[in-house]
Design brief:
alpha+beta, about 35% helix, DNA-binding, homodimer
DNA sequence: CGATAGGTTGACGGTTCTCAAGGGAGGTGG
DNA sequence: CCACCTCCCTTGAGAACCGTCAACCTATCG
């Protein structure tokens, strides 16, 4: 059930839209992005995937992969064959529940992300999201390594790369963050939370 | 496991953010919307729910409802207790698989919806989405009954109500649709598909 | 060291939002 | 039954945010 694929290089593809869906992918090392190309030829970044996270869920419902998945750094992944996953979870109710909860969490995250927000709000929420995911895996929450290109961040947030650049500059001028190429240090997380508050539900 | 709640009136709430999550809701009759209020007091419409569809999935992962759900028309729903659902599906692998597929489909739909699109593209895709869901339930695909207010459509699509109004007017002037208050007739579905093509993945 | 890709910054313009006013539809009470 | 109210929808004018275009800078790599 667990096949490991090592030695993935930046730009290597783990899956492509239309590929037969055989299972999910677990990130062991490196960072990945999932994206699609629309009928107009435009790219749409759908998500970033850090070590410890699962990729490829969108493919289950139709039996084919719904996104392209590519490595942003050198990476290692694990194949989780879906038929075996189902077989095991049929005997192991706790795994079944875990799977459903996992899927449900993804739905909840996406639901939170949809909505109408300003460039500042989106950027603050994005930085905090990456920070939180770092922290969950035991890494420092204040020192981020933005492994993806500005273009990818921009695309993911539905902004122009220039806007991402400008917002980061603005945040730095306000002493909220410290930017050095792909390294970002969060100086005033509380203030960032306030800016991102629009994405936080009160009820 | 199946408790039916009838006689829901427009504005009645099925769930509120923070409510204990006990189970999902199946729409039997009427139409519903789910939404949240953010920390700034702004409303964000997260989805519309037609007869035959499930609501409340976002609440599973944290054990509390993540959205408010309210009736837009007179409605009837069914409560599906989650603990019983799990218990049954532990014995019935086909139900388990069905559930996972259902969740995965929701993830795929949301994934498709995220991205950067113009007002025309969003509106065309929205009309086609409602049309498709009508057709799936055996109703005419060309004659839509937009049971929600313009304000809700606008909010859902991250547009201003004025923009929704203008786009509909523009579509009508181009003979793509015929609008009469909440009734919309799709005259040239193919052309709408072309406009919404940006939301259709090519790979 | 030159080439290339990625990132930053500035000027300008466009799509969409905001503000404002007016028109209908439906409900309520006299 | 009609006046009146309210909510919703539509339309117009102006503004704002962000995207586009363009130039320049910086890192990386052969």
């Amino acid at each position: 059930m667990l096949r490991t694929r090592e030695g993935l290089r930046p730009g290597d593809h783990v899956a492509r839209v239309g590929d037969d869906f055989r299972g999910l992918f677990a990130v062991r090392a490196g960072c990945f992005k999932s994206y699609v190309i629309d009928m107009d030829g435009r790219e749409h970044v759908k998500g970033f995937h850090l070590p410890g996270e699962l990729m490829g869920i969108e493919g289950i419902s139709v039996g084919r992969h719904a996104t392209n998945i590519t490595a942003l750094e050198n990476g290692v992944i694990c194949d989780l064959r879906y038929d075996e996953l189902l077989r095991i979870s049929a005997r192991e109710p706790s795994l079944q529940e875990h799977l459903l909860r996992l899927f449900a969490r993804r739905i909840a995250e996406q639901t939170r992300r949809t909505g109408d927000y300003s460039a500042d709000e989106k950027m603050a929420a994005f930085l905090l999201d990456i920070s939180m995911r770092y922290a969950e895996r035991g890494r420092a929450a204040e020192l981020l390594d933005l492994f993806m290109a500005r273009r990818d961040i921009a695309n993911y947030l539905s902004l122009a790369t220039e806007t991402v650049s400008r917002v980061l500059t603005r945040f730095q001028k306000r002493d909220l963050i410290l930017v050095n190429r792909k390294r970002v240090k969060l100086l005033r997380i509380e203030r960032l939370r306030e800016i991102a508050a629009a994405l936080t539900d009160a009820g």
